Amino acid sequence: MDWNMTIKEILEYNFFDIGDISLNAITLIEFSLVIILGRIVFWVFDKQILRRFFQKVEDPGREFAIRQFVKYIIYLLTFLFALQILGISLSVLWAGSAALLVGFGLGMQQTFNDLVSGIILLSESSVSVGDVVTVDGIVGKVNRIGLRTSEVESMDEITIVIPNSKLVVDNVINWSYNGKHSRFQVSIGVAYDADPEEVKKILLRIADAQMELSTQPKPSVQFVEFGDSSLNFNLHFYTKDFWNIERIKSDLRFKIFAAMKKAGIEIPFPQTDVWVRSAKEEGEASKK
């Protein structure tokens, strides 16, 4: 390289040539500007459009999903355009790598499935950040939705990384999806000498005093059955506080136990009567 070259010549000087691809200072500057421009476009769209829109519509989960989806699209288009700046023809690139992509695709089917599922989640928002879901019997809160995997935090504060395909294909309970109350229940059995109407009044009084329970629909008591050793009841109630439901059930059980004990109503333990025959009785029974 001649150090006596002018600035224009330096900028246009090719560091190396590979086929139709010529790399020089101007090309590198254009490539960098395209990348920076892509980031600026996303920043403007995020701050000036998305933020103003979601100030009126408070939905953190949908906001996160749309922001991620827009970011992936803008960054992908920016990268493809930057390759064109370098002189890399995408049509030639795809044609040259077709055979490789076939083999690669066969080995990456599950990954592609997760990627497509991620796009579906980000666009449909059937599961959003902040939702409480049940996946494979585990109740957790969605903390992040990525393009391939999502992060769900269990009630034990354990972060579980879940492939997006499980959130799309498998049966997933989304407690937060419709924003409505859901019904739960606490079961209790009392002794046969208890008054069912009094039991009902006690259960409803406890439910009405529990702050987290909804007043509409109201709590209700169901007389389930005449059990082997108890009269069995279910206290049904509605709430939106899905994340703390186990703690709410525990509080209700504490209060129910204390109220029944104060009212003199016995909560029996399972009992089984065992009849023992003597040898004499066995012999008389066999003669008959």
Describe this entry's structure for a reader.
With 288 residues, this protein is an alpha+beta fold. The protein has three domains: 7-96, no CATH class; 127-174, SH3 type barrels (Roll); 182-262, Alpha-Beta Plaits (2-Layer Sandwich). It is built from ten helices and ten strands. The chain has helices at residues 7-12, 25-56, 60-85, 90-96, 98-107, 109-124, 164-169, 196-209, 245-262, 279-287; strands at residues 14-18, 21-24, 132-135, 138-145, 149-154, 159-163, 173-174, 182-190, 220-226, 231-239. The chain has a five-stranded antiparallel sheet with strand order 6-5-4-3-7. A three-stranded antiparallel sheet has the order 8-10-9, with helices on one face. The chain has a two-stranded antiparallel sheet with strand order 1-2. Helix 3 (60-85) packs across helix 6. The N and C termini lie far apart (119 Å). The model has no long low-confidence stretch (mean pLDDT 79).
Distance between the termini: 119 Å
Average predicted confidence as pLDDT: 79
Quickly give the structural class. alpha+beta
Q: How many domains would you count in the coordinates?
A: 3
Number of beta-strand segments: 10
Low-confidence stretches are none
Order of helices and strands: HEEHHHHHEEEEHEEHEEHH
Cα-based radius of gyration, to the nearest Å: 33 Å
Contiguous helical run count: 10
Beta-strand fraction estimate:
15-25%
Largest sheet: 5 strands, antiparallel
